[in-house]
Amino acid sequence: MKKTGGQLIVDALQANGVKRISCVPGESYLAVLDALYDSGIEAVVCRQEGGAAMMADCWGRLSGEPGICMVTRGPGATNASAGLHIARQDSIPMILFIGQVARDMRDREAFQEVEYRRALTEFAKWVGEIDDAARIPEFVTRAFAVATSGRPGPVVLSLPEDMLTDLVDAPAAKPYTAVEMHPGPAQIKELAHMLAKAKRPVAILGGTRWSEEAVADFRTFAETWNLPVGCSFRRQMLFDHTHPSYAGDVGIGINPALAREIKDADLLLLVGARMSEMPSSSYTLLDIPYPSQTLVHVYPEPSELGHVYRPDLAICAAPAEFSAAMKSQAPPDSPAWLARTKSMHEAYLAWSTPPLQGPGPVQMGPIMNWIESNTDKQTIFTNGAGNYATWLHRFHRFQAFATQAAPTSGSMGYGLPAAVAAKKLHPEREVICFAGDGCFMMHGQEFATAVRHNLPIIVLVINNGIYGTIRMHQEREYPGRVSATDLTNPDFAALARAYGGHGETVETTDAFAAAFERARASGRPAILDIKLDPQAITPAKTLSEIQAASR
């Protein structure tokens, strides 16, 4: 039976187990929208393409399967590029379908025409355009394979409008085949031997291609060996923070004690992590290209091994396969680092205990303590970028896999779309979004998407009336010369109510708990507008103190 190109796209998605897509509709892919009508695939209709792409990223981040996004040509595609960039830097499997001008109009700069194979190459692992509808099963199968293999990442497929209405014969789509990367037995034995000889080892976990089972396997390995373990920037969900082996997060504002331990380590085990600029403290924790530590690098992409740091032992393997292999390795009778592992965990506990006092009537330290005591370990936390995120990343103790969605690329506006996507993926779990006032306004319109789909997320807007991170750097580098960092905001609580959600303003610390419980009980998407004094720019220093130290 002949089918349209639009129907073949949807058939291929069904064959690969896709249950939902995020989209902003466009006339350039009406044939796909029509095929979705009775497909059983849910279309989560968003208010801006950047938010739609970020939702797809979050689905890929939390599930390991490619998140699917569809947008129209030109401005739709360029809006979506913000989410593509996040997925690329974060190694998240994702497929972005873009409607394209008709084939007989190409190369004329037709209405909204862009050559995506040139424009988006830096944002994706592969950018393709499907000229022949009969090849749709081939292209889509390849897209899933590329997005999930090696170092995962986003793929873009451009769909000419007239191609989607062609009636063609094509083979029935089949699901993609996952490509696994396994460590060699000799490599596992060599690593066990290297660890047994070490005096000051440290493991750092990061990246993607993890699973709940893989996290459990690595935990078994770590506790069998009493190995100190850190998690790379915004990958804290990969190890239980309450476990005695946990040493802290290796990211922005790293605990100085942990930074010293990493620099002084005699063996550094990187699993799934690239140790790029943020987790490496601007490439200062490891020497380039030859680290002073003995480096064992485990990564599923051969081209990444030796790309920046030359490893002493390179293991091309996915985290799941590596962890499964290592958990059965027997440790030495009395590892030399037992006391060190304990002291590193104690240092983490001290570092992750929030301060109880600070400037202004709202204290984020007690609020974080309340959240820690009144949320389940399966609660999913999302955020974008800004100094406000320190309160979550430093003081929340993650205990379970797939409970964190945050961009390592430092993209503002991510938290709210991610929260919508997370709640759609896991409706049974509580989802809490942290957002700064500047961050929220980047994609705050997706609160309407949460209302439309009845997704009772709770958004904490940490509202200090400034672009906080930039003001902090401004006061450090150009003290007293405030420029382009002040904000004028709406009433976020009233905004939530206008959208049909629950909204409250929190102006004192004591008011937070009751407001949160009312938001939770409302059963609706909620925003708590937390009025934070701009002086409370970091947990440790005020704006005035930063300014004074810079003079």
Give the gist of this structure:
By secondary structure, this protein is of the alpha/beta class. Helix content is 37%, strand content 17%.
Blueprint of the fold:
Layout: E1 3-4, H1 5-15, E2 20-23, H2 30-36, E3 42-45, H3 49-63, E4 67-71, H4 75-90, E5 94-100, H5 116-119, E6 126-129, H6 136-148, E7 154-160, E8 167-168, H7 185-197, E9 201-205, H8 212-225, E10 229-232, E11 246-250, H9 256-264, E12 267-271, E13 294-299, E14 313-316, H10 319-326, H11 338-351, H12 364-374, E15 380-383, H13 389-395, E16 404-405, H14 415-425, E17 431-436, H15 437-443, H16 447-452, E18 458-463, H17 468-477, H18 492-499, E19 502-506, H19 512-522, E20 526-531, H20 543-550
Parallel strand pairs: 2-3, 2-4, 4-5, 5-7, 6-7, 9-10, 9-12, 10-11, 12-13, 13-14, 15-16, 15-17, 17-18, 18-20, 19-20
Antiparallel strand pairs: 1-8
Helix pairs in contact: 1-2, 1-6, 3-4, 3-14, 8-10, 17-20
